[in-house]
Amino acid sequence: MVKKLSTGDITEARCTRCQEIMNHTIVAMVEEKIVRVQCNTCSGVHNYRSPAPAKKAATSKSLTTKTTTPRVSRKDPLAGERQEWAEQIVKMQPELAITYTMDGKYKVNGLVKHATFGLGIVKRQSPGKVEMLFADGKKMLKSQ
Asked: Judging by beta carbons within 10 Å of its beta carbon (0-12, 13-18, 19+), is residue 117 exposed, middle or buried?
């Protein structure tokens, strides 16, 4: 004889907060169907979600036919910026580069020498910031 479940009984359910199958107390039922439960671990009240059935074991045939290879990016996201820097830097005179300081003032398309990033070209200026293009990509730096 199987005992009929009723409100207040304990059952297993998938907890939406814990993300695990846990013991729950039945809070509401419609006829013989469990509708709402309360998790005995986290006390969260939510709609009843039956424990997921166990997945079937994969056959050896399906394991051998499927090959997994790591995903490789097809395009370098910084390639365009590097190419732009290379094209513009050949037109500039490195000996005329201004040394970068946070309180310096810079002109758009001016050449700047940075201690860490090397030679850079000023692309855009906004209050308190300056965007510069270096060999390894664009950088937003502080300025006056």
From this structure: middle
Q: How far apart are CA 65 and CA 112, in angstroms?
A: 56
Distance between alpha carbon 32 and the CA centroid of its chain, in Å? 43
Given a contact cutoff of 8 angstroms between Cβ atoms, the answer to whether 125 and 143 are in contact is yes
What's the distance, CA 138 to chain centroid?
A: 21
Within a 10 A sphere around the Cβ of 34, how many other Cβ atoms?
A: 21
Q: Is the pLDDT of residue 63 over 70?
A: no
Q: What is the mean pLDDT of residues 103-111?
A: 90
pLDDT at 61 over 70: no
Residue 97 CB coordination number (10 Å): 17
